[in-house]
Every structure is written in C-alpha cells, then in structure tokens.
C-alpha cells in the first residue's frame, strides 16, 4: 500500500501497539500525535481531564505528528475510545488538515465500547474523503485479525 500514513494518539500504549501492527503489515509510515500538555498517567485523573476537554470541544495544540499529509493518499487514523468519541489530540489533527479525495481508515482500541461514535465523528470531519470500514480492538492485538480486516477492506 503506497503513500500510506498511520496516525495515532495513545496514552496507555494500546492504540500505539495497534498502529505499529498496521504499519508492519501495510508498510506505511507511522506518526504519533503528541499534545503540548500531556495527560496524567494516573487513570482517574486522566479520565477527569479528558471528560472536561471532550465536553468543551477542546482541541489541544500538537507539538508532534501534525506535519503535512499532502504526500499521503491513504491515512489510517487511530484513537482510544474515550467517552464514545475521539481523543482530543486526534480531533486536533483532523481539524487541521484537508482530507479531500483521500482514503481514511479509522481504528481504535477500547475497553468494551467498540467504536462508539468514532467512525461517525471521523466521517463528519473528513466529509470529502473516502472512509473505509475500520477496526475496533479490545484487548490483545492479534496480527491475524488485523490481516483479515486489511484484506476485507482491500488494503492487502
């Protein structure tokens, strides 16, 4: 898959591990989104911070990962499922780029909530792009599951 970019935000490394597996299987370029201010590594504190940001529609400034997407035709976008939606750093990325004519593939990690509204939220932000069916992973990353999904959507 040429010109593929795998962009992700991960606080506790679950989404990172999924992004790495997708990059390994597709040969795509990987890019981590890093917000200016980190979230707490204490789960309960992070939950409060995130809930507040999402309820305000806050999009944090990104200090890394927000470089141009112009040279990429296919962009896989990964996020943890936070309160049924995207992590705020991912929303920042989406709002700062033009996805017109690009193929966008969502992926997420979750603790039982599946995609929630993530696919709909990405579709709204990337309304002039082609959105392929994504994958939502709960628990351990199974390479064969990723392979099957990528084959199903025509990427492999």
How would you portray this structure in words?
- This protein is of the alpha/beta class and 156 residues long.
- It has one domain: Rossmann fold, CATH 3.40.50.360.
- Strands 1, 2, 5, 6, 7 and 8 form a 6-stranded parallel β-sheet that branches. Strands 3-4 form a two-stranded antiparallel sheet.
- It is globular.
- The protein starts with a strand and ends with a helix.
- The mean pLDDT is 94.
Task: Tell me the layout of helices and strands.
Blueprint (H helix, E strand, L loop, with lengths): L3 E5 L5 H13 L2 E4 L1 E2 L7 H14 L5 E3 L9 E7 L7 H8 L7 E7 L8 H8 L4 E2 L3 E3 L5 H10 L4
Parallel strand pairs: 1-2, 1-5, 5-6, 6-7, 6-8
Antiparallel strand pairs: 3-4
Helix pairs in contact: 1-5
CATH topology: Rossmann fold
CATH superfamily: Flavodoxin domain
Structural class: alpha/beta
Spatial separation of the terminal alpha carbons: 7 Å
- By CATH reckoning, the class would read Alpha Beta
Strand content: 15-25%
Which architecture would the CATH scheme give at its second level? 3-Layer(aba) Sandwich
Series of H and E elements: EHEEHEEHEHEEH
Largest sheet: 6 strands, parallel
Number of strands: 8
Return residue spans where pLDDT drops below 50 for at least 5 consecutive residues: none
Which term fits the overall shape?
Answer: globular
* Total separate domains: 1
Domain Flavodoxin-like: 4-152
InterPro entries: Flavodoxin/NO_synth, Flavoprotein-like_sf
Protein name: Flavodoxin
GO molecular function, one term: FMN binding
